[in-house]
Design goal:
6-stranded antiparallel beta sheet, 6 helices, 6 strands
Length: 181
């Protein structure tokens, strides 16, 4: 599926869903509770790490092979990535998501993992009540426009800005969350 493909006109929530880390050497995918809920995986698996194979099983079968190939190509180049794909959520529901990832470079320059965030997508670009969602939607629209116009440097810069925005929002969510227990 090309990056600029149009999402179907169905109503889905939007906004920051959660954060993740994919450790390629260990073959494990780590995710916060929100991502686990989206992917219909137990939260404990996200904290402890779920096998890459099990994680990939939660991708829509029509997206699984192509997404895996694109991630492998991006990893070889150690580039940031931006993907739109479908996941199998609770009760085998199909949910469109946008995922952003950055390589984590080791001291020797190698890339053994990626970190990123997943946003639930929606076809409508109506403004949400949450200012964070409005910010993310605006940045996504700017990214899509730059990509559609073939302005690669701006598209890549917006990917980095989106990742940093997600990191900041996730940090604020964690700081604002009530203590557990």
């Amino acid at each position: 599926m090309p990056h600029s493909s149009v999402l179907p006109s169905i109503s889905l929530p939007t906004g920051i869903t959660g954060t993740w880390r994919w450790d390629f050497d260990a073959g494990l995918f780590f995710a916060d509770e929100r991502v686990c809920r989206l992917f219909d995986l137990p939260a404990a698996w996200g904290r402890l790490g779920v096998s890459s194979e099990r994680f990939l099983e939660q991708l829509h079968h029509q997206d699984r092979v192509s997404l895996t190939a694109r991630v492998a190509a991006v990893r070889r180049r150690q580039d940031p990535f931006f993907e739109i794909y479908r996941v199998l959520g609770p009760a085998q529901s199909v949910i469109w998501v946008r995922s952003f990832g950055l390589p984590v470079r080791e001291a020797d320059g190698s890339c053994r993992s990626y970190v990123g965030l997943i946003l639930s997508a929606r076809a409508s670009l109506a403004v949400s009540e949450a200012p964070e969602d409005e910010l993310v939607d605006t940045l996504i629209r700017a990214h899509d426009l730059a990509e559609g116009l073939g302005i690669d440097i701006v598209s890549r810069l917006l990917q980095v800005v989106l990742l940093e925005t997600g990191r900041q929002i996730a940090t604020n969510m964690t700081q604002d969350a009530p203590p557990s227990g």
